[in-house]
Amino acid sequence: MTGQKTVPSVFINKTHIGGCDKTVQAHKDGHLQQLLAAESESYDYDLIVIGGGSGGLACSKESASLGKKVMVLDYVVPTPKGTSWGLGGTCVNVGCIPKKLMHQTALLRTALQDARSLGWEFSEQVSHNWETMKTAVNNYIGSLNWGYRVSLRNKNVNYVNAYAEFVEPHKIKATNKRGKETFYTAARFVLATGERPRYLGIPGDKEYCITSDDLFSLPYCPGKTLVVGASYVSLECGGFLAGLGLDVTIMVRSILLRGFDQEMADRAGDYMETHGVKFLRKFVPVKVEELEPGTPGRLKVTAKSTETGEIIEGEYNTVLIAVGRDACTEKIGLDKAGVKVNPKNGKIPVNDEEQTNVPHIYAIGDILEGKWELTPVAIQAGRLLARRLYSGSATKVYHSLFWPLEFTVPNRDNNRSYAKIICHKLDNERVIGFHYLGPNAGEVTQGFGAAMKCGITKEQLDTTIGIHPTCAEIFTTMEVTKSSGGDITQAGC
C-alpha cells in the first residue's frame, strides 16, 4: 500500500508516517503531535483544499483516491466589471486555455493571407466576428468546468461553491453566493487560492478598465485598445488583439518582460512592432475618464512620462490593465490560523514539502513565495503533496524549471525567428539555458526540456540527427558562439 520496504512502518490514525527518520522529523516539526491529538479529536474531513484551480483539483483528487475524506471550496469573487467563471481556476477560465484559443484565431488571419499566395481565391473583404469567437471559447471552457465537477464527484470529493475563511487553526467558515455561512473542520488544509490581476490605483481604473479576467468573455469587440503593462500577459493579449486586426497600443513603464532574457524580450517587441502593435514607452497612466458609454464606449487616458514628467492624452475604446497579479491570501483569515505571510506581496513561505509554518496547513501554486507560477508545477505539486501526506511517498517537486514565452506568430522570414542555447563550459558544455522565438515554441521547448533535465550537452545536440524540415532542427546545427561575433543570418533551410 505504501511502497515502503523497510521497518518500522509507522501509521497513526490510518495515516502512513513512514520509517524511523520520517517519524523523528514529524516529531521535530510538530506534525506527530498533531496526528496524535487527532486520535482523540474528530474532524469533518481529513483534508480541506481551499481553491479549485489546477493545483487544488489535482491535490484533492489524489488525496481522495488514497482513501481520504476530502472537500474542495472554490469561489470566484466577481471582477469590478462583474465577470465571474466556473470551477477550474485561472488557467482554464481566464488564462492559458482561452488565450491560446484566441491566439489561434489570430493566427488564422495570417493563414488567410498565406492562402492567397498559394492559389486560394476568395473575397478581399474578410471580417472577424468577436461574438462568434467569444461564444465558441466560452462554450469550450464551460465544458471543462462541467468535466471538473464530474471528476470530483467520481472521486468522492465534496465540492462546495463558497468562499472559505479560517476562524480557527482547524476550522473554516464557508460563505456561499447567497451569504449563507457554514462551518467545517479538517485535520489538514491545503491553500491553493491563486492570484488575481492587480489594478493601478488611479482614478477610473476599476470603473472603466478591464483586465485579463474580463477580456476572454467580453461580450463585444474591444475596438481600439490600450494595453497597460509589459508583462507576458500584456504582450500575449496585445499580440492576439492586433492579430485580429484591432488597433493596439501597449504602454510600457520601463522594459519589456522584466526578469526575462532581455535579448529575447527586445526581439519579441521588435517582432510585434513589425506586425502592427504600437508601443508607448516610458509612460504610465495617471487617470482614465469615460467620454462616452457603450459596447465599446470611448475613454480618455491621461499618462505621464517616467523620464520628463510630460503629460499626454489619448482616446481608446478599451483599456486593458496587465501590470501583474496579487496573491489571494489577504482575506482568508490566515492570521487566525497562525500562517505567516510575506506582508509585501501576500505570498506564503513554505519548506521544500509545501508546508507552511503551521504543520497541518500546506500551500501550493501561485501563492508560494519564490516559486514558479506555472500550471504544470501546481498540478505536480498537488499530486506529490497528497502522496507524501497519505501514501508515504518522499518525492518532492522539482522547482528549477524554465518556461517559454509563447505568443509569437509563425513567420516566413528565417531571420525573424531566433534561437540560442547557454552552455556551462566547465561542465562538459552541459546545456543550462534554452531560448526559442518562433513557430510552435511550446512544442519545441517541451522536448528539449526533458533532454535538459537528463543533462544533455552541446556535443550530444551536435550528434543528434535533425528532423527535416523543422524549426527545431536548428538546435542540432548551431555553430556560432556569442563571443565570436559571427554572423547568424540564415540563407535557407
Automatic annotation (TrEMBL):
Family listed: Belongs to the class-I pyridine nucleotide-disulfide oxidoreductase family.
InterPro entries linked: FAD/NAD-bd_sf, FAD/NAD-binding_dom, FAD/NAD-linked_Rdtase_dimer_sf, GSHR/TRXR-like, Pyr_nucl-diS_OxRdtase_dimer, Pyr_OxRdtase_I_AS, Thioredoxin-like_sf, Thioredoxin/glutathione_Rdtase
Alphabetical GO biological process terms: cell redox homeostasis; cellular response to oxidative stress; glutathione metabolic process
The UniProt record lists the keyword Disulfide bond: yes
Key words of the record: Disulfide bond, FAD, Flavoprotein, NADP, Oxidoreductase, Redox-active center, Selenocysteine
One matching Pfam family: Pyr_redox_dim
Entry keyword annotation includes Oxidoreductase: yes
Cellular component annotations (GO), alphabetically ordered: cytosol; mitochondrion
Residue span(s) of domain FAD/NAD(P)-binding: 45-382
EC number, as in UniProt: 1.8.1.9
Gene that this sequence comes from: TXNRD3
Any GO molecular function: thioredoxin-disulfide reductase (NADPH) activity
Residue span, Pyridine nucleotide-disulphide oxidoreductase dimerisation domain: 393-478
Protein name, per record: thioredoxin-disulfide reductase (NADPH)
Cofactor: FAD
